[in-house]
Amino acid sequence: MLWVAILSPLFGALLNGLILRSVSRRTSHLMGVLAMAVSFLAAVSVAVSFIGSHATEPVLKYALNWIHVGTLNIDFEFIIDQLSVLMLLVVTGIGLLIHIYAGGYMSHEEGMYERTARFFSYLNLFVFMMLILVLGNSLPLMFVGWEGVGLCSYLLIGYWYHEDANAKAGMKAFLVNRIGDIGFLLGIFLTFKTFGTLSFTELKNIVLSGSLTPEMIQSVSWITLFLFIGACGKSAQLPLYIWLPDAMAGPTPVSALIHAATMVTAGIYMMTRLNFFYYLSPNTMMIVALVGVLTAFFAATIAMVQYDIKKVLAYSTVSQLGYMVLAAGVGAYDASVFHLLTHACFKALLFLGSGSVIFAMHHEQDIRKMGGLRKHLPITHFVFLVGVLAIIGFPGLSGFFSKDEILWKSFIGGQHMGFGLFLWIMATITAGMTAFYMCRVLLLTFYGPNRSDEHTRKHLHETSPVMWGPLLVLAALSIGIGYLGIPPLLGSLFGHAESNIFEHYLAPVLSIPESMHEHWAFLHASYSHGLEWALMGASVGLMLIASFTAIIFYGKGFAPITETLARTFAPLFTLLSNKYFVDELYERVFIRPCREMAHFLWAFVDVIVVDGIVNGIGRACAFSGAFFSLRATGSVHRSGMLMVFGFVFLLIYMMA
Amino acid sequence: MFSMLNDLILSLMIFTPLVFGVGLLGIKNVKIARTVAMFGAFLTFLWSLHVWFYFDGSQSGLQFVEAYEWLPALGIKYIVGIDGLSLLLVMLTTFLTILILISQWHVVESRQRYFLSLFMFLETGMLGALLAFDMVFFYLFWEAMLIPMYFIIGIWGSKERIYAANKFFIYTVVGSLFLLVAAILMYIEYHSQFGVYSTSLIDLYKVKIPYPQQIWYFLAFAVAFAIKVPMWPFHTWLPDAHVQAPTAGSVVLAGILLKLGTYGFLRFALPLFPEATEALAPAIMLLGIIGILYGAFTAWVQEDAKKLVAYSSVSHLGFVVLGCVGFYAGAGEMSVEALTGSVYQMINHGISTGALFFLVGMIYERCHTRDLKEFGGLAKVMPWYAVMLIIATLSSVGLPGTGGFVGEFLILLGMFQVYPIVSFAASLGVLFGAVYMLSMVKRILFGNVTKADNEKLADLNGREFLYITPLAVLIFVMGIFPNIFLDKVKVSVEYFAKNYRQYEVSVVENHLDSPDSKLQNTGWSESAKFHGE
User: Fold this and answer.
1) Is B297 part of the contact surface with chain A (CB cutoff 8 Å)?
2) Residues 6+ apart with CB under 8 A from A82
3) Residue A647: its pLDDT value, please?
4) What residues are paired with A60 via a beta bridge?
């Protein structure tokens, strides 16, 4: 069944990819969806049988040997455990919904049928690669998926390649990710050097056996750091996040599937998969936590002033990924993965919702030109509202449970790691900003007066069921899925003190090496309920205040006060709306100097220096040859030969 | 019957193209000529397939050996043999030659027969150089490769073809002369140590040259091979040669000829002068890394697609060079992974860069320019072309699932075990490789069609599909099922990596005759002493 789940999308991709042009849009859509449906059903069956067996040990499925050279032996071997089953369901489930939706979204593709075949081919291929990533039982196999999803991302961002900007954005994504990939590769190499194996299960056994030397532990901190660089690339963390906002150039279903729900969480998945390594390296963990919280904060500040609906969501994704990384950094992998799960649902929902808006608005993405759309798009409005409430952590929706867990763990973790309240304060302020900018988008899009032009307004209409159907499912998930992870604190109100099903579920995957038990003991220590209530209250309170502020500012279009604020804090506003000029900075500091150096290397070093010397020798020989033979033949051959014989005699002389 | 074939299969393989090449000169009709050429290439490929299937991957020694005395007084023998170091390159040579002939199928010029015949000669030269185990024959084949290539560039090249052909020729000849001198000295040295003359490489492996002197010998060999690879700073002949050469010439040049540099390094310089190689390994690694980064940077700023691919070769071969010097400090062992990676990467590079040169050639034939500024948006006009170009690019940038990844990964992983810093520096090449390749892809395929003429370009035709598809398929086969190839070579490579300090090639029998009788028949007694008894 696992093979069906993995191979079905590949089959779909090949089918759609190799019969380019020859099928209609409808057929290619149907094939894509069918491949996903088969994959999803197979995934469900895998999940049911695995979870039903109550196994605590992973099940390994061997396909074939991949590379076997010297002591290096890499198999195509797949791992089924609590973590990969979860990811399997997320990827195929949300993948299926988005495939269905995409059929509607891509239906206006100017009659170029081969293009939608190409689209669904890439999309299916992406799912296949993502499954390799989450199911592979070794670092190299994960890397296959890791780069594979990167490739699909590249192809899909640049899907509408006739626009230069899209092609550029795709390239940027690929290249920035490559920087992270170098880190990933170095992590693989060092792992092999240290442990002589690259398989997750074997590594886990070695680490948990407790027989590590201090040198090995030292290596592990480097390994974790290298791999984290990879995670920073894929999961868009500082300083490598810059590709993700640009990645919104791709079609919106792509943004939802790849750049929100699945691919970008690969970094978090990888760290969770290797949690036994990370638990061994408290120093790396501190860096992880800091990068996470700073990314969350930083991206949220940018999101507050963006006008492109997809850009806001993109920065919000970066910010939410920062939360997950933060949770990973404080050792709360269960909270991190739980947020990954809820985020996958509500962010896919928000992106697809924005997709419906953009679709209805004829590819207009500027929220300044929207407004009042709830009358025209009632279903979209409803699901978008659900998504917003979920992401801002409105009590009762999924985001509330997962975010609250992260905030709480960052509070206790921060103090334990010596950051004091820093992590919690930053994370909580970020939650406030999230509430503000999400409400801002919601209000400017669906409420207040309609600011679009006459033509667009006339054609506004609710999307077809093929599009709002998946949205409703996602909305239901965004509400319901949080109840898998009710914290004991709230559970106890209803008489279920041990009700955090999710934490319990993931426990077999997370294993703190024995030497580090004490260090991470705080994760499961008991704290006063009063404190927990107080913190929860504080964050919910801040969220409400931020939401009301947004309502005052944007409830009826742009309130005058927004303008005043923008004018008063003009420098800050400029800084934020230009995204801190980070792209420009990188351009100046890295790209341009490199380009100039490349020009220098070629035009000067290569053409003038190296080639000059070569031709110079030739000419000098020609000259001396002419001199000695007293016949100016100018033949390069002759002079070359003369030169060579000179060298040859010299050489013989030296060796003799 | 097959066992009989084993006795002379390698000679058949080497000389079949030669015979056909000579025969072609007399055929005036282009249509007949190309059919004959194709038949010859196909026959050679069949011979190589025979070798492939009967090659015993569990043996490290030489197989299908043929040894005959030629000039006994001088100790010159005709010895050919094949092992894991050369097997894949031989297969690549015979295979690419067929594809090249397909790519030339449509040409109906009357002098085409000369062109085809030059390619046949070239194939003989390459196969001979790969299979010869006698210094004299190796040197003959090694130099013989130059001549057809010289004419291919000089006659069928573009505007500056004479300059490029001369540069190519002189550069390479200069290098080979050093090699010749050092080889002669080796020959003399062998006589003074063993009392007899021999030019057999198998014998020469036994010559012990004291360490400080070894350096000079090594340098003389290494210069010849470094120019061929080409390693920085001996690379400037390459862009000129590639830009001027016709497409088919570029494909052979990048696909096979360059590999003879790294192959020669492995076959001769390293095992003959192991201490010197170890001592100079840091310098070689430095040049390798410079080559990787320098090649990548210079490729990035090229406006000519072919020049870009040419510089990318400089970069890619830097990886191969690195993998050849992965010595464990003081252990007398090399990293098996890195060395295997090098051997594998030679083939990958031949396939992906061969494909890239073919693809650049296709648009050159259509537009008569290779200036990247003239293109853009071709993905829309030529969707299949786009697919193929992207596949070749992916292998070139080493995406997992393509052959390029397996090679690069093995080299970098192996080097990391030995010199982590070197591996780190080289891995930057993985990033920069993506920079220039994706820039090229973007400029050719994406964006709007900028020139009206480009709107009407035809997509790949049947003939083009016929020669590009096998390469595209191989890229994935080599990436997903590398063991098909590695299983054949890894025993040889592992033996080499672990014994390079006292390297001896043994002779493996692939036929029914007993080893002794064969050796007596051929009077080849010297080499029999060290193996198989």
Assistant:
1) yes
2) A51, A505, A506, A508, A509
3) 61
4) A79
Return the pLDDT at A467: 86
In three-state form (DSSP H/G/I as H, E/B as E, the rest C), the secondary structure along A187-251 is HHHHHHHHHCCCEHHHHHHHHHCCCCCHHHHHHHHHHHHHHHHHHHHHCCCCCCCCHHHHHHHCC
Average pLDDT over residues B198-222: 89
- Looking at the predicted structure, is the pLDDT value of residue B391 above 80? yes
Rounded Cα distance between B86 and B89, Å, is 5
**Using CB atoms and an 8 Å cut-off, which of residues 121-160 of chain B contact chain A?**
none
Residue with tokens 């085809």: B116
**Average pLDDT along chain B:** 88
Domain residue spans of chain A: 304-577, 583-655
In angstroms, the CA A36 to CA B527 distance is: 63
List the domain boundaries for chain B: 302-498
Q: Which of A429, A439, A272, A437 is nearest to A339 (CA)?
A: A272
> What's the CA gap between B402 and A266, in Å, rounded?
22
- Decide: B397 and A128 in contact? Cβ < 8 Å: no
**Contact at 8 Å (CB) between A351 and A335?**
no
Measure Cα distances from A161 to A119, A155, A157 in Å.
12, 9, 8
Closest to B300 in 3D by CA, of A198, A578, A591, A56: A591
Which whole number is the average pLDDT over B58-62?
88
CB hemisphere CA count around A550 (13 angstroms): 25
Q: Which run of H or of E encompasses B64?
A: strand B63-71
CA angle A473-A474-A480, nearest 5°? 90
Q: Give the whole-angstrom CA distance, residue A455 versus residue B497.
A: 73
Cβ burial, residue A245 (10 Å; 0-12/13-18/19+): buried
Contact of B181 with chain A, judged by CB distance below 8 Å, is answered with: yes
Report CA-CA distances (Å) from A520 to A200, A270, A409, B513.
Answer: 22, 20, 12, 70
Helices B237-244 and B161-194 meet at what angle, rounded to 10? Answer: 130
Residue A630: partners with Cβ closer than 8 Å, 6 or more residues away: none
Q: Token pair of B516, please?
A: 């002794």
Q: Tens digit of pLDDT for each residue in B221-246?
A: 999 999 998 888 888 889 889 999 99
Do the chains contact at A602 and B181, CB–CB below 8 Å? Answer: no
Contacts of B494 in chain A (CB under 8 A): 70
Q: Which residues of A touch B406 (CB under 8 A)?
A: 67
The CA dihedral of A148, A153, A159, A161, to the nearest 10 degrees, is -90
User: Residue B328 — very low, low, confident or very high, per pLDDT cuts 50/70/90?
Assistant: confident
pLDDT digit string, tens, across residues A342-395: 999 999 999 999 999 988 888 888 888 888 888 888 899 999 999 999 999 888
Give the pLDDT confidence score for residue B158 in this predicted structure.
Answer: 87
**Eight-class DSSP state of B446:** S
A-B interface: how many C-beta pairs under 8 angstroms? 179
Flag residues of chain A having pLDDT under 50. 113, 630-634
Pairing of strands B76-82, B327-328: unpaired
CB-closest option in B213, B438, B494 to A70: B494
